[in-house]
Design brief:
alpha+beta; 8-stranded mixed sheet; 4 helices
Amino acid sequence: MSGEEDESSTEKKDVEITAGGSTVYRYENQPEEKDPKDLFPEVQCVYLEEIEEHLARYIAEPDLVFHEIISELVHIDVHWIKPSANYPYNILVTSGMSDLPMNVPEEIDDKEAYERAELMVVLPADWKIGDEEFQDDNNYWPVYFLKRLARFPHEYKTWLGYGHTIPNGMEAEEIANTSFGCMLLLPPMLSFDEEFLELTTKDGKIINFYAMIPVYKEEMDYKLEEGTDALLDLFDEYGISELVDIDRPNVCKR
């Protein structure tokens, strides 16, 4: 089930299938004035406690939560799990994206199982994290994209899931002090238990956890042409996982 989310901006216009089997959704620019009912979340923190319990059970209890002060559509908080002996890296996980179901296409089998998701990013142990550190875009961009992508499906009435790539603007512009231009969503491959990947809530909903992996534009293009599995084969060859390394090789560099 691969798909490409091409984030040009709002209303869905055309849908196309790439050579690699990815579905490309294109969006028109948003209206400058938003409907007031879309500016404030109708519900908040629906599954917060269950998400925190899930993190504590399978990884560790979050050390700190970066609370969102002003929210649109959904209230997104970011939970920070600091490095430990079992997980020697920083783990940032969203909550709030799953407050509302995403607009999964009818043709997706068992689409209800993919309607809710949360995102995570895995950063090196020495990544600078904190309110003061986040004043520098070179430190903050992973959090920025976590929040941006968590709100994206609700803003654009679409969905995000396995293998979806979201470019940084129409031209997949380079992000902060990196050469990455795109985000790829995959189940975390590093050392997280398989049971962690899905949370079945008390009301019977399924929340999927996806790792947000920054990729180069050439890697995104390769995935569109050859498919997600082909790109993952190259990642395996180069030993690339969801642990962010801003100096890692571009596996599709010609």
